[in-house]
Amino acid sequence: MKTNPQIQFASLEEIKQYQEALLREQIIYLAKHSPFYQNLFAREKINPSLIRRIEDLSSIPTTSKTDLQNQNEQFLCVPRSEISDFVTTSGTLGEPVTFAVTNSDLERLAYNEELSFSTAGCRPGDIFQLMTTIDRRFMAGLAYFLGARKLGCGVARVGNGIPELQWDTIRRIQPSVCIVVPSFLLKLVQYAQSHGIDPQKSSLRRAICIGEALRSPGPDYHLSTLGERITQQWPGLELFSTYASTEMQTSFTECSQHAGGHIPPELIIVELLDEQEQPVSENTPGEVTITTLGVQGMPLLRFKTGDICCFTSEPCRCGRNTPRLSSLLGRKKQMIKYKGTTLYPPALFNILNEISGIQNYIIDVSTNELDTDSITLRIASPRQDEAFIKEIKDLFRSKIRVAPEIIFESSEKISSLQFPPMSRKPIFFRDLRKPVEILK
């Protein structure tokens, strides 16, 4: 694949021209090798050779997760003999999808993460502590390992959980960077405090954070409650927010300005669309819709991720001129309509993270007897009195105008719900609603 790490510092027009040259190559590749897109072009009477500019993409219908689930094999562009690795999506919004990755795609993944880590200020010679799994068909863990090696860094593959082992590794290996689900950092701090460890004196200086929002959308990008709690308890650790998915095979990472994740222009084209599939304006929520560049195994064209973000195209003070994406606001299918209020799970997480005394939690949304959404907070806490319940409900009413039902559970029960069999990362939200078909 072609790489050009300096293109992100070019002018917007140069970036656009560079992307369009790669887009034309990708369209020709899809027309030649992808059964799914061959059928789409034929059905919609689209001449691939006429797709030459980013604006031309609007003439092509979008692709959905349902297409991937129902026609998974039709997206494969190479013989099975050329597949080097098989990965699957997490299945958060339905049946997991298998992705086939070629040697070239693995090289692209490595380059993507090398670029991502460099954006966050990591340099050759850093040592990474990988606090996420690298197995269970998880693309991200493999990408982190490959990217760190490509950047010239060492890697300690500890995996998720087990604070004792994490701190033992920090003591023995002296890593400077960790890759982690940010809420786990609070558990590391709690373990350190109870075992006489001073996090400030550890070797860790940067945390590449995945899976949870750390900042508000622009234009201010202030820290979320979770981000504030981490920085208060571990002030010497700089947090870098990232956004990625298996389908994109690409990640968006903050620079030192902490003002949104930079889009790597040689790897992906991003559109943010409204409900009518029209582009949204800057700092307005829209569905992230992507066209991968340089992917061989299973490239995607105008794929709607289901993720809701905002974007800005204002040049960054770091010198990069690429557009930037906000943290994930929520997932389209996880939107909750509760007592006349529209919510996404991250808004609920942010409130719960603000409440001292809550050790752990998971949020259930279900369908009640009136066929409307119902929210239940399952909470582990040493406090379970009526005054504490009132405190929680009052905070929810002040923030989002409504108060969910509260059920207290043991910390062990919550942990077992957060890590079901085959889980690759903690689950804080369970969608138990009836399928839409049942409601019709």
Question: How would you characterize the overall build of this protein?
Answer:
With 440 residues, the chain is of the alpha/beta class. The chain has two domains: 1-329, ANL, N-terminal domain (Rossmann fold, 3-Layer(aba) Sandwich); 335-439, GMP Synthetase, Chain A, domain 3, CATH 3.30.300. The protein has twelve helices and 21 strands. A six-stranded mixed beta sheet has the order 4-3-5-6-7-8, sandwiched between helices. Strands 10-11-12-15 form a four-stranded antiparallel beta sheet. A four-stranded mixed beta sheet has the order 20-19-18-21, with helices on both faces. β19, α10 and β20 form a beta-alpha-beta unit. Residues 436-440 have low confidence and may be disordered.
Give the helix/strand layout.
Blueprint: H1 12-33, H2 35-43, H3 65-70, E1 83-88, E2 98-102, H4 103-119, E3 127-130, H5 139-151, E4 154-157, H6 163-173, E5 177-180, H7 182-194, E6 206-209, H8 225-233, E7 238-245, E8 250-253, E9 261-262, E10 268-273, E11 286-292, E12 303-309, E13 311-312, E14 324-325, E15 330-331, E16 336-338, E17 341-343, H9 345-352, E18 360-367, E19 373-380, H10 386-400, E20 405-408, H11 411-418, E21 429-431, H12 436-439
Parallel strand pairs: 3-4, 3-5, 5-6, 6-7, 18-21, 19-20
Antiparallel strand pairs: 1-2, 7-8, 9-14, 10-11, 11-12, 12-15, 13-14, 16-17, 18-19
Helix pairs in contact: 1-2, 4-5, 6-7, 7-8, 9-10
